[in-house]
UniProtKB/TrEMBL annotation:
It comes from the Eukaryota. It comes from Mycoemilia scoparia. This is E2 ubiquitin-conjugating protein mms2. PROSITE patterns: UBC_2 (PS50127). It holds the Pfam family UQ_con. The gene is MMS2. Coiled coil: none annotated. Residues 5-118 form the UBC core domain. InterPro entries: UBC, UBQ-conjugating_enzyme/RWD.
Length: 118
């Protein structure tokens, strides 16, 4: 069975992102609606209940390069956050976040956001 082309994968992710997910704890979509390469994305996370991040809203910029989904996206928090995998400039270190370190083609923007919420 062959792999779906990049744009088909991203169009599917766009549809899922626009519907929202994770019990309303995250949403994601294209940064600009005219991004025909489906490369630049925005995401919003709401801090989970009973954590230090409870009810806080965090914004991210995500870039799905030309090798996505075979290669992981890059992601950066726009909102200041204190997490072990986030550098001072908000960039998520791929070596410090399990899903990025061990990226599989079956992973997605949604799976990245779910891991960040854990």
């Amino acid at each position: 069975m062959s792999n779906l082309p990049r744009n088909f994968v991203l169009l599917d992710e766009l549809e899922k992102g626009e519907k929202g997910g994770g019990n309303g704890l995250y949403s994601y979509g294209l940064d600009k609606p005219d991004d025909t390469y489906l490369e630049f994305w925005n995401a919003t996370l709401i801090g989970p209940i009973n954590t230090a991040f409870e009810s806080r809203i965090y914004s991210l910029k995500i870039r799905c390069g030309q090798n996505y989904p075979d290669a992981p996206p890059t992601a950066r928090f726009v909102t200041k956050i204190n997490l072990h995998c986030v550098g001072p400039d908000g960039t998520i270190s791929p070596h410090k976040l399990q899903i990025l370190k061990n990226w599989k083609r079956s992973n997605s923007i949604e799976s990245l956001l779910r891991e960040l919420l854990q």
